[in-house]
């Protein structure tokens, strides 16, 4: 399955009073990883939305291993781990300085139409995300 790495820098507003990344921000890092993976695979999310197909998160999990801090550069490694008829699964690893594993997680997204009813993913999307 497709894998992609993107670099993000921890912004001040993403940290708590101790300068540690506040836990929900990892889900935003996952979103960045997922969006950039799809873009690099040739899937432009905004174009998919224009065609009436939307992706909604139905599951999200994150396991925290170590703390990230303000101004650190993080590597978000995202991998497609499931491509279904109307769903996609992604796995994530967030690494800090020195390659330390900071967090890992997973999301599942369902494909829906404008009425929020399940709809098949476009074949072009499944083809692009299944390639190795």
Would you kindly provide a written description of the structure presented here, covering whatever features stand out?
By secondary structure, the protein is α+β, with helices and mostly antiparallel strands. Helices cover 23% and strands 38% of the residues. The chain has three helices and five strands. It has a five-stranded antiparallel β-sheet with strand order 1-3-4-5-2.
Q: Keywords for this structure?
A:
single chain, 132 residues, alpha+beta, 23% helix, elongated
Biggest β-sheet description: 5 strands, antiparallel
By helix and strand content, what is the structural category? alpha+beta
Average pLDDT confidence is: 95
Order of helices and strands: EHHEEEEH
* Continuous helix count: 3
Radius of gyration: 15 Å
Q: Which residue ranges are poorly predicted, with pLDDT under 50 across at least 5 consecutive positions?
A: none
Overall number of strands: 5
Q: Percentage of helical residues?
A: 10-25%
| Coarse morphology | elongated
Strand content: 35-45%
Across the major sheet, the strand order is 1-3-4-5-2
Distance between the terminal alpha carbons, to the nearest Å?
5 Å
